[in-house]
Amino acid sequence: MTAMPIALYIEQIVNGLVAGSMYALVGGGIALIYGTMRVLNMAHGEFYMMGGYAAFYLVGRAVPPVLAIPLVAGLLFLVGAAVQRLTVHYLLRQDGWLFACIAATLGLSIAFQNLALIVFGEDYKTVPYYVEGILRLGDIRLPLQRVLMLLVAVGTLLAMGFLLKKTRFGWALRATSQDSDAASVCGIPVSRVHMITFGLSAALGGVAGAMLAPIYSVSPWMGLPVLFKGFVVVVLGGLGSFPGAIVGGLLLGIVEALGVQITSAEWRDVFGFALMIVVVWARPWGLFGKAP
Amino acid sequence: MLEIRGLDVAYGDYQVLWDVSIDVAAGEIVAILGPNGSGKSTVLKAIIGLCRARSGTIRFEGNDLARLAVHDRAGIGIAMVMERRRLFPAMTVRENVLLGAYPAAVRHDAEARLGWVEGLFPILRERGAQPAGRLSGGEQQMVAIARGLMAKPRLLLMDEPYLGLAPKVVLQINDIIRRINAEGIAVVFNEQNVNLSFALAHRGYLLESGRLMLGGTGQEMLHSDVVRRVYLGE
Question: Which of A168, B93, B154, B201 is least enclosed by beta carbons within 10 angstroms?
Answer without folding.
Answer: A168
